[in-house]
Amino acid sequence: MLLAGYTFRNLCRARELLAESPDEHLSVKYIAREVAISPYHFIRQFEAVFGMTPHQFRIQSRLDRAKLLLAMGERSVTDVCMEVGFSSLGSFSDLFTRRFGSSPSAYKRHARTMVQVPGNFPQELFPGCLSLMGALPASAFRNFQEARPSLLR
Amino acid sequence: MRIKLTSLMVDDQDKALKFYTDLLGFRKKHEFPAGAYKWLTVISPEGPEDIELSLEPNANPAAKTFQKAMFDQKIPLAAFEVGDIEKEYARLAAAGVVFTTKPTRMGPVTIAVLSDTCGNLIQLYQPTM
Questions:
Q1: Interface membership of A12 toward B (CB under 8 Å)
Q2: Burial (CB count <10 Å: 0-12, 13-18, 19+), residue A41
């Protein structure tokens, strides 16, 4: 599929609207209208470009924000759940666990042991470019020439 | 000093592996668990086996901001050379891949730009000289 320039811009704008309104007060149908694409084509084109439906993108944005709030450590899990727009603690916890591999409370506990200065997150929580390589044991590499020298000491 | 490894940030490593192998045709080289994420690299079946592309999680909020800004400005974050760009364009478009630029002559190369569904625009190019 070849996207016209204006459709590309509209889909980028829709992504912003979805991220800015995580609590669903702007429906997907409303956002489709806002960017002048029929709801059917909007969902189809959004998924083809971003690899997830608008609804899935919105859930992901909420969970990413929840993760950040939990890492900051100042809010309870229930507070964070409400803050990012979930009304059920159970479904929030379930979705969070499926996406990040640990429950919100376990993640919060883990983050608390790592974050010394609020707002200053260690790489293990939010890895940066190529930083994952530093977290691997030397045994993870097929031969030692592939490993960073610092891992071999 | 040699270039043997470069990286792309992706919003979901499993989805990225599927796209880069099933659709683009790369081959998985490494996949090791690293905490909540993975050390994941692919290689080209047509290229040297020791030149790897790492598909990294864009979990860092700064990385997300950068990736989104580049995408919104239609700037590709990587470029891959192909032998026949018209053929690749037809094959990938038929498989449902979205292009923002169809094969277009740009001086010494013909380029096309696609969305990798993981937050990046990728340029394909074929040298024409």
A1: yes
A2: exposed
CA distance B20 to chain A (A): 13
Mean pLDDT lowest among A21-30, A143-152, B5-14: A143-152
Tokens 């190369």, located at residue: B109
> Which residue of A lies nearest to B31 if distances are taken between CA atoms?
A140
Half-sphere exposure (CA, 13 Å, Cβ side) for B89?
18
ipTM of the complex: 0.91
What is chain A's Cα-based Rg? 20
Whether B43 has its CB under 8 Å from any CB of chain A: the answer is no
Q: Which of A12, A35, A133, A145 to mutate to test the interface with B (most CBs of B within 10 A)?
A: A133
Q: What is the CATH number of domain B5-127?
A: 3.10.180.10
- B54 → closest Cβ in A48, A50, A130: A130
Domain containing A25 equals 5-51
* pTM for the whole structure: 0.87
Say if A45 is an interface residue toward chain B (CB within 8 Å). yes
Domain assignment of residue A133, yes or no? yes
Give the model's confidence band at A142: pLDDT under 50 very low, under 70 low, under 90 confident, else very high.
Answer: low
